[in-house]
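Q: My labmate handed me this sequence with no annotations at all. I'd like to see what the chain might look like in three dimensions before we decide whether it's worth expressing. Could you predict it?
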Amino acid sequence: MTPALNSLSQRIAARLSSSQRDDHYLHNDFHALTAATLDMEKRFDRAERIPSPPQEMRLEALRRFRLAQELTEREWRMVFYGLADNDPLYPDQPILLEDDTFFPRVNSAIKKRIETKTLKRRDWAALCSSYFAYQHQLPETNPHWCVLRGHIAQGYLVVKAAIRREKSWMKTIEFYHDIFTPQAGGVISRQLLAGENNSLSSLEKNRANP
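A: Here is what I predict for the chain of 210 residues:
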């Protein structure tokens, strides 16, 4: 499980602990929580089956980006995919999500695409990939990661508006709408407290098919 999802799991567990003190009850729900978070990770990993590009392609784009070279739209997408990538050629160089010098340029590029409503679905998926790939024990303490989270939430509205018919992966985003907010996990917490043992797996049953 990635640190981002592990952090989400811990927040949900804390909510459960504050709402229900019975040890047996919590023991059962922690099993359900584990199943739910693993299910979530799988769903986001395979959403629309958009595979992550090879690392070398991402690194090449990242190097061009750091050299301030003009990037194509495809190269920008590689950068969006590589926000959490370490470059083995430059081991002392921070990843973009922790780089105070270069992240502002990424921030501006994302904001421009959102404001002009030109953010593509694959670009949004790339941002999600970096969001979940970020390796940090407490990702929410990184302001750049929090900014990315906000962009993903806003960007989803742009992507949604450009798609005429709701896709299956969109149902997951719509239902668990708080996953890209500081309150992430609230929906899952409420479902677990209500006795649903497999919150995410029950999603398809609870939502009408397109």
